[in-house]
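protien #1 (seq + structre)
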Amino acid sequence: MGAEEQTTVVDVDLVELDEGVDQDERERRRNKAYTVVVRTPAGFEARFRVHPNERVETLARQAERFFIRRGELAEGNYRLEKLADGTTVPLVPSATLRESGVVKGTVCVLVVADPQVDG
């Protein structure tokens, strides 16, 4: 399956999913929201609409849930990394997307967070 065939053209709106804010705050966040791409280790990807003050761990958790529900990611422990210049850069889970340099159009990758163990 080619990379184009694995692209999911679905927007997951994290601004809408945040039930902890009222409608006015949700509207303010929506006005500053932008889209980033998240990929799985297998190359599946989807677009997520986010706010710059969203935490990295929130995006990672929502992306995991999304891909697991679609059968495109196995249950596990993942972390989010930013794709930059052909390599990935680990992101601090508690940092905001703004602090992490995750801007409009950024491509992030879910990577296995558990250490590799030889059997």
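ok now protien #2
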Amino acid sequence: MSTIQVKDDNGVRIITFNRPDKRNALNLQMYTRLTEYLIQGESDNEIRAFMFRGQAECFTSGNDVADFLKNSNLGVDHPAFRFLFCLLDLKKPVVAAVTGSAVGIGTTLLLHCDLVYADASAKFQLPFVRLALVPEAGASMLLPQIVGPVKAAELIMLGESFNAAAAHSYGLINDVIDSDDIFQFALHKAKLLAQQPPISLQATKRLMRYNREEVRTQMKKELAEFATRLASDEAKSRFAAFLKK
């Protein structure tokens, strides 16, 4: 069974996190597949939009910590960060349907999506500081721009979980959708995007994300600090406790 499932539907590439026994925790192989499917879809003129989803119980619980620590030599070629930089560079629009846990990268990847919908079961969390790390995916820049610096400090520095209603009020998601309808609703929106004039749509996305190079620079700064923090005694202690638990 593939841990990343892909289906193309009327111009939309649907990418499903499919590791429910591990709460869709992302390992290095999954990151590699995600990047490959995005690159393929970006070069395919029949694909006009992307959609991320998980199962009803979980979007993704973040990194598979044990697997991530096996390749802790972080840099721009690390599978997780290759995926994040690929997401940053996508020209085509991205929709996300969030159900259940969206932890760590499960929340930060949403900052690079153009439309995000969640159901009432969705729980978002940015636990980086709790793990003695720092944010990634440009979250240290993008989150303050979206929710304001005061709320961003609360969400990142305390790392407490928050629900879909809160995420909607902060402007992190477009709407809260009934659980029975969430996947079809998000897919419908993705198909509407796929029906738009593609060159105009991509140009509009490029104009709206005018600070992409600034975000790239910030992501590289985060990566350097993340690597330093990951190697620290502070982080090793936190991860040891996490894995033991």
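The chain has eleven helices and ten strands.
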